[in-house]
Amino acid sequence: MRIRGLGVIDDAVLQLGPRLTVVTGETGAGKTMVVQGLTLLFGGRSDVGRVRPGAERALVEGRLVLPEGHPALQRAAEAGAELDEGALLLSRTVGTDGRSRAHLGGRSVPVGLLGELADDVLAVHGQSDQQRLLQPARQRAALDRYGGLAVLALRERYSTQWTRWRQVRSLLEQLRAAAEERRREAELLRLGLAEVEAVAPEPGEGEVLAAEIDRLANADDLRTAAARAQEALSGEESGSDGMDALQRIGLARRQLEAAARHDAELGALAARLAELGHLLGDVAAELASYAAAVDADPARLVAAQERLASLTTLVRRHGVDGTDGVLEWARSASDRLLELDGAEDRIGELESQDAALETALGMLAGELSAARAVAAATFGAAVTAELAALAMPDAQVTALVSSREDTGGLPVGDRRLAAGAEGVDEVELLLVAHPGAPARPLHRGASGGELSRVMLAVEVVLAGSDPVPLMVFDEVDAGVGGRAAVEVGRRLARLAQDHQVVVVTHLPQVAAFADHHLLVVKASDGGSAGFVTRSGVVGIDGEERIAELSRMLAGADTGLSRGHATELLAAAAEDRRGR
Question: What 8-state DSSP symbol labels residue 242?
């Protein structure tokens, strides 16, 4: 990992090897910036105040090597990231303008994606994390993680059922709340359908009625026009020569027929005049029938006008186009009315689903509570065993799994309990500090030093069930010393057998167990603006490491403290060989 422009660190490259790596240095040298760098690299919250004065931005780069098929690699591949010789490259920059940028596998990605990777890669355990672990919700989540698949699988099933139950109940509440509105809508639809049913319009009826009304209103004009046209064709009245249209066509045909023997063309014209005569005769007959059939019926005219007025009222009331639009509205209204009437049936179905889901959820909640109780017993015993090795042999930690009754809650057995998406359980870690002492919540039952050891024991027990490959401990050993400090180092080294562990510590007893030792070195440069503090990170071994442990023991590298440091390293090496 490389850090540039972050806090007091100007430019540093950290070689984080396998197993246990410790980071040490004088107070104010910038040890915590190593943890800050890791946190930033994996999507942590950016802080402009962390950018080194005089630098344009803070930069953290990392090279991550994970086994094939690891979930983090799958997520990165989905984002289009590419591996560099089997390693995944990450980077994060924070500018003085507050802008934050992230890159993954050569591609620019949202910062949130780095945070998603952190869920599968990194677990940071620090004093702030200890404070969060004092919260009941965090303690329940920690117990579930410790319980493993036996608890987590049940919690997942419960959570899925809970979501489904809340969806059904929410829909049920919405339908019940909208019952009056549905009733009013249905009543309006029924009134509208009753009006349409009373009028009973036919498709296209409005246009037909309009044409009929026009005909009835002009019946006299129509009859007169037909009679006169019939008379002009074949009536008694004739032109100035006393002949009607049919007679004239007949005369013309006979004239042509007389001369047709001399020219076939005239014969063809004569035949066409014969056809025309027959056609005019038919038209004249139909005109006579039409004139006789035209009836100026005032009563029928009034009825048609009233019928059209009723149809027009329906059209305007429903804002549609013609009688066809009214019929289409009626069909839609009928469908909607069926839907509204079916809402009551839907309520009944949802009530049945609600009852079934509630019962099933109550059974799952009971199973989850039982699984948590089993996990709580083993968890408490494991933490208590760790405390015995941390110079608290008489202390005892228990994980109390409890619930509270609620008349409107979830039925579990013969009781109704307050429930949430995580179940009906409340989890609280209790400490009996010494024999005869009452069991009290951690934050009220332990002194500062005791709390640090208790929380470290909890962290160590939880870390054993944590699936992430990289674990970071930031001065979780504060308030611990002497024999207990050796046990802290021993336990962190034990964790490092299965994880890559990075520890920021001020305890030489812990640092002695490291497989790799990084020293944060602070220096001051003089200049016109005064002294500027710079820090770098170097790997140390051999005599340099003995000198650093000596400083940590006595505040200075003396012969006595150097001998003690050598003994610490030898004892830690012997302990590792014994494992």
Answer: S
CA distance 181 to 176: 10
Helix (H, G, I), strand (E, B) or coil at 499: coil
Residue 409 confidence (pLDDT) above 70: yes
In this structure, what token pair is assigned to residue 407? 């008349």
| DSSP line for 122-153 | EEEEEHHHHHHHTSHHHHHHHHHHHHTHHHHH
CA distance 31 to 8: 10
**Rounded CA gap, 41 and 64, in Å?**
11
In 3-state terms, the chain is what percent helix, strand and coil (to 5)?
60, 20, 25
Higher-pLDDT residue of 105, 288: 105
Residues in a beta bridge with 516: 21
Two structure tokens written together for 400: 């109390």
Least Cα distance to 473 among 11, 173, 32, 136 occurs for 32
Length reported for the chain: 579
Give residues with Cβ within 8 angstroms of 143, minimum separation 6: 151, 372, 375, 376, 379, 399, 401, 427
State the pTM of this model.
0.61
Q: Kindly indicate the confidence band of residue 529, based on its pLDDT and cuts at 50, 70 and 90.
A: very low
Report whether 144 contacts 152 (CB < 8 A). yes
pLDDT digits (tens, 9 = 90+) for 141-181: 889 989 988 999 999 999 999 999 999 988 888 877 776 67
Q: CA 554, 560, 564, 565: dihedral to nearest 10 degrees? A: 60
Which region, left, alpha or beta, applies to residue 110 given φ > 0 means left and ψ of -120 to 50 means alpha? beta
Short-list 373, 352, 389, 460, CA closest to 424: 373
Q: What is the dihedral of CA 535, 538, 540, 543, to 10 degrees?
A: -60
Exposed e or buried b per residue across 323-359, where buried means at least 16 C-beta atoms within 10 angstroms of its C-beta: bbbbbebbeebeeebeebeebeeeeeebeebbeebbe
Tokens 């429903």 belong to 318
Residue 504, classed as helix, strand or coil, is strand
535, 521 contact by CB (below 8 A): yes
Cα–Cα distance for residue pair 74/359, rounded to 1 Å: 38
Alpha-carbon distance values, 32 to 357, 502, 505 (Å) = 49, 12, 10
Element (H, E) at 536: strand 532-540
Higher-pLDDT residue of 26 and 529 is 26
φ, ψ dihedrals at 513, nearest 5°: -85, 0
Q: Which residue has the tokens 């009214």?
A: 326
What are 238's two structure tokens? 């004739």
Alpha helix (H) ranges present in 415-558? 442-445, 448-463, 482-495, 508-511, 542-554
Measured distance CA(106)–CA(90) in Å, rounded: 8
H helical segments located in 260-407: 264-293, 298-318, 322-389
Kindly provide the b/e burial profile for residues 61-79, where b requires at least 16 CB atoms within 10 angstroms of the residue's own CB: bbebebeeebebbebbeee
Highest-confidence segment of 8-17, 131-140, 242-251: 8-17
Give the CA count within 13 Å in the CB-facing half-sphere of 265: 0
Give the CA angle between residues 299, 303, 306 to the nearest 5°. Answer: 140
Could you give the angle at the alpha carbon of 542 between the alpha carbons of 540 and 543, nearest 5°? Answer: 95
Query: Percentage of the chain surpassing pLDDT 70?
Result: 93
